[in-house]
Amino acid sequence: MYQTKSGDMFDYIAYKNFGDCMYTQELMRANRDKLNNFTFKSGVELNIPTVDSAENINLPPWKR
């Protein structure tokens, strides 16, 4: 769970939690009910999904 700060955006939250903004899609999929937010106000709770490691993210699913 992540609690937003005023001005947070999905790509920044992905970078902050996973170390790379390439995980933005996974974060957005885990929070479909919040997709209408471009920037967040303070205090919005987001689910932080478990993601594949960076070395495996570019592999097709059958090779992970």
Molecular structure report:
The protein is mainly alpha-helical and 64 residues long. It is 30% helix and 6% strand. It has 3 helices and 2 strands, in the order E-H-H-E-H. It has helices spanning 10-18, 24-29, 54-57, and strands at residues 2-3, 45-46. A two-stranded antiparallel ribbon has the order 1-2. The termini are far apart. The relative contact order is 0.26. The model has no long low-confidence stretch (mean pLDDT 88).
Structural class: mainly alpha
Give the strand content. Answer: 5-15%
Counted beta strands: 2
- With strands numbered from the N-terminus, the spatial order across the biggest sheet is 1-2
Helices and strands, in N-to-C order? EHHEH
Terminal CA distance: 26 Å
Mass-distribution shape:
elongated
The unreliable regions are none
Helix count, DSSP H or I runs of 4 or more residues: 3
Largest sheet: 2 strands, antiparallel
Average pLDDT, all residues: 88
Structural Rg: 12 Å
Helix content: 25-40%
Q: Secondary-structure map with pairings?
A:
Elements: E1 2-3, H1 10-18, H2 24-29, E2 45-46, H3 54-57
Antiparallel strand pairs: 1-2
Please tag this protein with its features:
mainly alpha, 2 strands, 64 residues
